[in-house]
Design brief:
This is Helix-turn-helix transcriptional regulator. By secondary structure, this protein is α/β, with parallel strands linked by helices. It folds into two domains: 73 residues, lambda repressor-like DNA-binding domains (434 Repressor (Amino-terminal Domain)); 193 residues, Endonuclease, Chain A (2-Layer Sandwich), CATH 3.30.870. The chain is built from twelve helices and six strands. Strand 5 and strand 6 form a beta hairpin.
Length: 284
């Protein structure tokens, strides 16, 4: 049996909250399964809350307060914990970011920017400065740290199965200096190879695609219906109406059917990275 991963209560508000929850649960002699019994939530969710990896839904907080007789402690503080977890993350994306940690599958279509889970620090900083040139440096760096922190997703033993489709234009039209562009593409290849996630490129020769009007993220869950999420520069929308989610998933299926196979896609990304690396060396 692998050793239990106890959170460091001093490292963050969510970890303190989770450690307190675990202490009170164990002090009451309850297993995780016993504590969530009678709620609409499962033990895997409770485990992640205790490790400080997820926030607590209000319905579960109310249930736990009653079961542990904590006088409303978890209900009173669950929103504060959520706010601490969302520091540096856009309000419209906060719920979606948290969904990544409890999803079964993650499917993404990226026509205009590399997906957040695959971005390097330099790429994140460039995107933020392009989208919000008026933002102060301290604000930019807070957003960069929050975005990069999401990459902890790849270290989770029980992470979701990831499938991404990228537009070929992302690797052909550099948004960074050559050396940093090479770093970004090499990072994508390294993540794909080390995590066995699936990545495809949609060729530029495709004149149109089923989702040509914008990006798309689809999440499926073990204990909840799937959701779709669309986003533009300053806002995003979660879509949970089942018939509409079904339509988005069908469009995504058509999209990846039109994309290059994963092996060929990674080979193209590697080739582009070598090109940028060579260009950078020529400039030195």
């Amino acid at each position: 049996m692998s050793p239990r991963k106890d959170p460091d209560p001093s490292s963050s508000v969510p970890c303190f909250y989770g450690a307190e929850l675990r202490f009170l649960r164990e002090n009451a002699g309850l297993t995780q399964e016993q504590l969530v019994e009678g709620s609409f939530r499962g033990a895997p969710l409770l485990s992640k809350i205790e490790r400080g990896e997820l926030g607590m839904p209000i319905d579960l907080a109310i249930h736990i307060d009653k079961k542990l007789s904590t006088g409303g402690f978890f209900q009173r503080h669950c929103e504060n914990v959520q706010q601490a977890r969302r520091s540096g993350i856009a309000a419209y994306f906060a719920d979606v970011a948290e969904m990544e940690e409890r999803a079964t599958t993650i499917e993404e279509w990226a026509p205009g920017a590399f997906p957040g889970l695959l971005q390097t620090e330099a790429y994140v900083r460039r995107l933020i400065r392009m989208g919000k040139p008026w933002m102060k440096s301290t604000g930019v760096e807070e957003l960069v740290r929050a975005r990069i922190a999401r990459a902890a997703f790849w270290k989770q033993d029980d992470r979701a199965y990831y499938w991404g489709v990228l537009h070929e234009g992302l690797i052909r039209r550099p948004s960074l200096p050559p050396a940093q562009m090479a770093d970004q593409l090499e990072h994508i290849v390294a993540v794909a190879q080390s995590t066995r996630c699936l990545l495809q490129l949609l060729p530029e020769t495709k004149a149109s695609d089923p989702l040509m009007m914008g990006d798309l993220r689809v999440r499926t869950f073990p204990d909840a219906p799937p959701i779709a999420y669309t986003e533009n520069v300053h806002s995003g929308q979660v879509i949970d109406f089942p018939p509409l989610v079904t339509e988005y998933r069908r469009s995504y299926d058509l999209l990846r059917a039109a994309a290059l196979p994963p092996e060929a896609s990674l080979a193209m990304i590697e080739e582009a990275a070598r090109g940028y690396r060579h260009e950078a060396q020529q400039q030195d």
